[in-house]
Amino acid sequence: MADTFSPNGRPHLHGPTSKRWLPTLLAALWAICFASVFIWQSASVRSISIFRSNSRLYQSIPRLRKNVFNLTDFGAVDDGRTINTGAFERAVQAIKARGGGQLNVPSGTWLTAPFNLTSHLTLFLAEGAVILGIEDETLWPLLPALPSYGYGREEKGPRYGSLIHGQNLKDVVITGHNGTINGQGQYWWTKYKRRALNFTRPPLVHLMWSKDIIISNITLLDSPFWTFHPYDCKNITVQHVTIIAPLIGAPNTDGIDPDSCEDMLVENCYISVGDDGIAIKSGWDQYGIAYGRPSTNILIRDVTIRSMISAGISIGSEMSGGVSNITVENARIWESRRAIRIKTSPGRGAFIHNLTYRNLTFDNCRVGVIVKTDYNEHPDDDWDRKAFPVVSNISFVGVRGWGVRVPVRIHGSEHIPIRDVELKDFAVGLSYKKKHIFQCSFVEGRVIGEIFPKPCENLDMYSMDGTLIKKAATENVMVDIDYDI
Ligand SMILES: *[C@@H]1O[C@H](CO)[C@@H](O)[C@H](O)[C@H]1NC(C)=O
Ligand SMILES: *[C@@H]1O[C@H](CO)[C@@H](O)[C@H](O)[C@H]1NC(C)=O
Ligand SMILES: *[C@@H]1O[C@H](CO)[C@@H](O)[C@H](O)[C@H]1NC(C)=O
Ligand SMILES: *[C@@H]1O[C@H](CO)[C@@H](O)[C@H](O)[C@H]1NC(C)=O
Ligand SMILES: *[C@@H]1O[C@H](CO)[C@@H](O)[C@H](O)[C@H]1NC(C)=O
Ligand SMILES: *[C@@H]1O[C@H](CO)[C@@H](O)[C@H](O)[C@H]1NC(C)=O
Ligand SMILES: *[C@@H]1O[C@H](CO)[C@@H](O)[C@H](O)[C@H]1NC(C)=O
Ligand SMILES: *[C@@H]1O[C@H](CO)[C@@H](O)[C@H](O)[C@H]1NC(C)=O
Ligand SMILES: *[C@@H]1O[C@H](CO)[C@@H](O)[C@H](O)[C@H]1NC(C)=O
Ligand SMILES: *[C@@H]1O[C@H](CO)[C@@H](O)[C@H](O)[C@H]1NC(C)=O
Fold this sequence. Notes:
Layout: H1 15-46, H2 48-52, E1 68-70, H3 85-97, E2 101-105, E3 108-112, E4 115-116, E5 121-125, E6 129-133, E7 142-143, E8 159-160, E9 164-167, E10 170-176, E11 180-182, H4 185-193, E12 205-208, E13 211-216, E14 219-221, E15 228-231, E16 234-239, E17 242-244, E18 262-273, E19 278-280, H5 285-291, E20 295-307, E21 311-315, E22 323-343, E23 351-372, E24 390-404, E25 406-411, E26 418-430, E27 438-441, E28 443-448, E29 459-462, E30 468-470
Parallel strand pairs: 1-2, 2-5, 3-6, 4-9, 5-10, 6-11, 9-12, 10-13, 11-14, 12-15, 13-16, 14-17, 16-18, 17-18, 18-20, 19-21, 20-22, 21-22, 22-23, 23-24, 23-25, 24-26, 25-27, 26-28, 28-29
Antiparallel strand pairs: 7-8, 29-30
Bound molecules: 2-acetamido-2-deoxy-beta-D-glucopyranose (NAG) (10 copies).
One 2-acetamido-2-deoxy-beta-D-glucopyranose is lined by residues 177, 217, 240.
Transmembrane segments: 21-40
InterPro entries: GH28_Enzymes, Glyco_hydro_28, PbH1, Pectin_lyas_fold, Pectin_lyase_fold/virulence
GO molecular function, one term: polygalacturonase activity
């Protein structure tokens, strides 16, 4: 028996005397272990906070830049009542004055109004650190409408700036040991539903005209509006981020909204929110067309998303600067209304082009893939009636699913046909009934090999080796769109 405890067959205990003591020793060890577990359990039941306030249990914070500051050095108090906006602002100023640095936010609850970041900054949220957005909109500054939207997204005129904000920056990192930025969205959602707000609600984290950004290893909780909104930014990485908002009753709490952004990677994220998990955008109708900045070169991989009201991963509906070269791979979307959505409308102009979806799992979603071209929501009445977006080159390879009502609904129109769609290795099990499960109109493209469910007649059929088996019976005819199921 002793040998099983000895690595490489070399016993630690020798001789008959030691062997006699062994059972007693083991019994004693067992008793000590049992007692510790018992004490630990009752301690954590009685008072988790006392146990956790022992700071030695927290991971020590790595030094990631030359200059390192502690938020408490600037007078911050973590009682959840003191407003720490001044402390954050002084800390950011100190870092700016030194040309960059790291700001550590220790464990604790740090109430604050919005503040701005600076370049060459690492904001580090320790384990147990919570940056808490204040529930008082008079302390949230107003910003002008985004040029590519013309208006605040839900009210005309300006909009509230985000809790954590940055403009014209480079080299910004928000990271930590899974600390939290909490927007206390409930306050805003309630006011919004009561129509008690005069301006568009604020995002939680919003960076504009910035580059070289990393958001990692943090939790973003209960945003008032879109959670992370990078606008006209370049080179952005989002990894190991958890984004949470209630699945219902939390309007417009999209997880991540890459908006006119280029070179972006989103990976290893868990998102469960009250609107789209990820929504790639690029401006709204005539304003977006004039601004003319696409969202392009975006890779989304290894994500798990739940969106009961809207969709897991969306493109649009605001896409008037264009959207191209988007890859989504290894994504699991569960208990969602829609898994993959592409939405646009007359008036948007521009293009949605070169999309690759690979290795997706749809687990209990109402609709799997949906393309909608009549999302008629416009900023004002001056949109161009002839600005039809061009939608083409979209491929789906390796899609699995179960419990899905409508695996595919591609709804092109006479003016916005969907071109060059490809499906391969696609098998999505149904939850409901056997008709209206592959809905098509004004779509053209091909299916390679067998897929399930059986595709609509609008698509050409190829064998796995690329031989044409059957030409599409019909290309541009309304076949079978049924929004009722
Ligand atoms: C920051 O300051 C607080 C209070 O002085 C202290 O408890 C904490 O250990 C400090 N953290 C770091 C990373 O210096
Ligand atoms: C952040 O910067 C923007 C742009 O300079 C400014 O309009 C806004 O008022 C600033 N926000 C805060 C909280 O200082
Ligand atoms: C980070 O915190 C969130 C919210 O508490 C939790 O759901 C998630 O599992 C944590 N992530 C890690 C890697 O510990
Ligand atoms: C909204 O505008 C109305 C009328 O101008 C004003 O009375 C009210 O205080 C404003 N509310 C907020 C939340 O700003
Ligand atoms: C992108 O940003 C990261 C993080 O700041 C940086 O290390 C990298 O060099 C940047 N890439 C390019 C091509 O500028
Ligand atoms: C970020 O989280 C991932 C996954 O939990 C972990 O492997 C990695 O070490 C973390 N990075 C830091 C800097 O803590
Ligand atoms: C498309 O985006 C990927 C990132 O997902 C990038 O590596 C690639 O260079 C881009 N392709 C083109 C043609 O720009
Ligand atoms: C497909 O994606 C799942 C996550 O949804 C992942 O576990 C699996 O390894 C991926 N398969 C391949 C071949 O990359
Ligand atoms: C789509 O990809 C092709 C091949 O890389 C490229 O020639 C074309 O410009 C891309 N379209 C857009 C809109 O980026
Ligand atoms: C379609 O998109 C893929 C992926 O971006 C690209 O490699 C391919 O060249 C595109 N095809 C055309 C015809 O643009």
